[in-house]
Design a protein that fits this description.
Layout (H helix, E strand, L loop, with lengths): L6 H26 L4 H21 L12 H24 L2 H8 L2 H13 L5 H18 L8 H23 L5 H23 L5 H27 L2 H4 L6 H12 L6 H25 L26 H13 L2
Length: 328
């Protein structure tokens, strides 16, 4: 594992990772013009299985796939499946910047959910950040001034369910086998979307199949880059790099989809990002015993690709917490 002596290289790797993730989301949006979400998710899962097999080959735990916490695992699997379907639908029908701005509210929701699920103590500073961030969501949505669509509800659902999934993993991740956390959401998506697929299936030309393959390749490349980022520097420096996706949204939206970021979306996104950054750096100063936001590895879990955290060794996953406890 590289020594954590070069924060800049870790930050740059984080930027590369989220650039790949943003391009991955562009493919979702392009496919969403022609295919139902069910078909997009189903093919996405199939093409991601080689990565899962690669991960399982590294898993030498001599245990079964029976979860230690079946009810928490079931809830986490359900939330990941809902996140994937909701996020993919939102990307298909909304401007990219709006989707990212709303999904960026996930760290705020994680902070709230960590109270009942993790027993986290949230002080007035982080409560203030949560309230400001949620006000930022209202600025993006502007109820009464902007016609709200199902896509907005889908983006909010994706943010909430991804937050729930992340907090549950934080609660049970140390006891559950990595293979369980990797396989259950993907297998659930495979089975559920496979059942629904005959009702919405459309033939796939080779060009569109290439888009699905590009999605899988970009997810794989982004995962590797993010792993390397967390190995090179601290989570408190890598996590904020997710917000660079709003810049990619502006660029791709303008170049490909003739989209622009209106004033309300820009202002609301700025408020949400500022609130999220405050929570991240507050946790990074050791203000949080569990550090639930820093420990989520940032990217919402969709049940179509493995969690980044499960692709790190147990020792590597433990480093950020040791860093926090050291008082550095």
């Amino acid at each position: 594992m590289p020594e954590r002596t070069s924060p800049l290289s870790g930050i740059l790797m984080g930027l590369v990772a989220y650039g790949f993730f943003s391009t991955h989301d562009i493919a979702i949006k392009m496919l969403g013009d022609r295919y139902a979400v069910v078909q997009i998710v189903f093919f996405g899962v199939i093409l991601s299985f080689p990565l899962v097999i690669f991960m399982l080959l590294r898993d030498d735990e001599a245990r079964t796939l029976k979860p230690v916490h079946p009810w928490w695992s079931a809830l986490r699997t359900l939330s990941a499946v809902i996140t994937g379907a909701s996020a993919f639908y939102a990307f298909s029908v909304l401007p990219l910047a709006q989707v990212y701005a709303i999904i960026f509210a996930a760290p705020l929701i994680i902070t709230v959910l960590s109270i009942p699920i993790l027993g986290e103590s949230v002080g007035p500073h982080r409560w203030g950040a949560v309230i400001c961030g949620l006000l930022g969501v209202l600025v993006v949505l502007r109820p009464g001034n902007v016609e709200l669509e199902p896509g907005h509800a889908a983006a909010l659902t994706a943010a909430a369910c991804s937050a729930l999934s992340s907090v549950i993993v934080r609660k049970i991740g140390r006891e559950e086998r990595a293979a369980v956390l990797l396989l259950y959401p993907m297998m659930a998506n495979f089975v559920l979307m496979g059942i629904l697929l005959p009702f919405v299936y459309r033939p796939v030309p080779l060009v569109d199949l290439g888009l699905w393959a590009m999605m899988a390749g970009l997810a794989f490349g982004a995962g590797l880059a993010l792993i390397e980022a967390y190995r090179r520097t601290e989570a408190v420096l890598v996590a904020p790099m997710q917000y660079s996706q709003i810049l990619w949204a502006a660029l791709y939206g303008w170049l490909i989809f003739d989209e622009t970021i209106d004033g309300g979306t820009g202002l609301g996104a700025a408020i949400i990002i500022a609130s999220g950054l405050y929570i991240v750096f507050r946790e990074g100063r050791g203000r949080s015993e569990n550090a639930p936001v820093l420990r989520t590895r940032s990217r919402p879990e969709t049940g179509t690709t493995p969690r980044i955290g499960r692709m790190l060794s147990a020792e590597e996953r433990a480093v950020p917490m040791r860093y926090l406890r050291s008082g550095h």
